[in-house]
User: Fold these one by one.
Assistant:
Number 1:
Amino acid sequence: IVRYNMISHLNKILKPSFATGDAMRQVEYIGNNTYIIGTGSGKLVRLENENFTELYNCGAPVISMMRDRKNFVWVSTAGKGVLVLDNRGKIIHHYNATSGTRNSLLSNFTREALQVSDSLYIVAGEHNLNLINIYTGAIDHITTNEGLPNNTVYSMQLDQNNMVWMSTNEGITSYDYTHNEFRMYDEKDGFLPVSNNSDLLYRSCILHDGRLVFAGAGKYIIFQPDSLVQRRAPKDVTITDIRLFNEFLPVDSILKENGLHLQHDQNTLTINFTS
């Protein structure tokens, strides 16, 4: 770990004896000159006043960590779900895939956690999003069947208008979680296309002026969410007319009678609709 003094502009290298050869992937500051460190081997370490204390071994690599508004640290792992630590490094909750249908993750592989309100957190899983209500314990799963444009989400940020932005295998996507509406962005919006793994954006942050940064291996993008036009999902389809052998049929009557029943030889049907 390299500690940088912003006043003296000097660096100091800190080397914990038990972490030889172990990659320190994530660092989160929790106050009082104390940090939580997550490693590639799954260790969680507290760094306090230059003293290292090993807290816990997750049993799976630490992928990312997120400090929430309560100063709790959410640790996403590659195989053991999500662990929540208090400001002393004690595990106070463990979300995994074995807790039951309504209060479990879809899988134990998790990439990142994001707090979107006092009660709602989103955890990016292996092939889905997990929406966790920390007060009720209920967890909803959002997959491509529920509208998720791409099932691999790497990183997420909440903008100043409470819109969730995420990087996926197909680029940047916004998510209005209050309406469960997604929108993908591409070259027409000024974003670079994702053509291979070098284009993937694995990490993100929000700047003081509200701009979002998503970064990957050798490239990054910075954008102001407010500058992008937010298009809502199309309205529900409305059938305007139905024709059988080019003869108009009463749409209202058909809808009220729960459908249209046809004979096997009534096989020329035209339906017009608007959206």
Note: The CA atoms of residues 189 and 228 lie 7 Å apart.
Number 2:
Amino acid sequence: MRNIEFSIENKIIELHFLLSLIAINYSAIAKVNTGNILVSSYLNWEEQFSKLLEKDEKYS
């Protein structure tokens, strides 16, 4: 009986470990995606700002 309980405890620990790895992986993916969004929005803002400057130089 003790062997079965020990085996179940090991499986629970393994499952907990695997779920932790999955959570860490998704957290890292979310941080990378957030970083990509921030960088792309900054580049988009920089592009729009340079277009505004070009228009401003044309009309002045």
Note: Helices lie at 2-59.
Number 3:
Amino acid sequence: MNKKIIYMLIFSAFAFFATNFQHVVTPSYLNTIGLKESHYGFLFAFMALGMSISSPISGRIGDKYGTRLTIFFGFIGYAISQFLFGTFTNIYALVFVRLTAGLSISASSTNMISYLTKVSTPERRAKVMSYYVAGILLFVSVAYKFGGELGIFLPARTVIYLHALTCLIIAFISLLLPNLKGNSQVIEKVKFKEVINGKLLTLLFVNLLAVMAFTSSVRFMEVYVINIGFTTQTLGNYVFISGLVTIIFTSLILPFISSRVKEPIIMKLLLLIGGLALWSTFNLFDNILIGLYSTFILFNMVKSGYDPMHNSYISKIDEDNQGQVIGISQSFKALGMVLGLIIGGYLYAYDKELVFNASAVLILVGFIILQLIKGDKNESKIFGAPNIK
């Protein structure tokens, strides 16, 4: 495997550890400073809004000037924003630093994905993206376990400060990555009409629906578990175990499948299974832990598998401007996070389980829309695909 791919896979795994171990204590932290449950989704929605704004811009910058410095400055900005998030208690100040955190981290995450698509061949790209997600899942699982244990012994604010320091260290480590030279011929502005066709737009819209559902379900599952009386340690243990199971899927099963089955077919299957699994978790089990450790783990497997298949598929649309294509996709993804968190916050405040049932419906709607995308003969054998080119 290309050394640049290996270096980025290792770096991204540690980077996602650094950016995730604080999540398990964040609900407790927001409770201690007196924020309402609806504010939880509102704050994270502003971070997603920042990501939506930044993604296509940072993707273009990475294409034109190189990826390494874009990743570096992204992590610097994110570390500063996270430090301020642990310092401020005023809701307006917190909203501002959430926005800057999104603007910053998107520059890093977009160019990390773009980096991998640029140094991998189209034939191996789905497998590389599967390994990317598998590494992230492993280290995110460890991060949640680590954060859950820290939450027992340290104040939540201290954990957030430690998280900011770790992200600062990651920023300087990024300078050790082999750089990819920019392309001076990259267009100065993102011209959506020149990049997006009907097929890509449909894929982006389906991804937006899926991300809305994935984000609201996973984020409010964390809040739900704490609100019904479980500890951060219980949450950390669950995420750790769920992550390990999902890692097996993304590192072993998904690469095997993706080398034999085309991405669109996999995407359709994942959405169908994911929607049904999510609905089952909150409707078929009296004991929520049984649901979490069975069908919700299956849902997490689907969530982790859909993103690499989507990224691999759309990256083949424009090989010369992959950063822009990925950036536009990340912008739609971030918009889905914004909508999912804002709408999910109000649904959760109204009825804690409604947010999960609504998300299941969105995923199944996405599955239905994918049937409209015209594919090749192999795709039509399974689901059919009538008309959108």
Note: DSSP finds 16 helices and no strands in the chain.
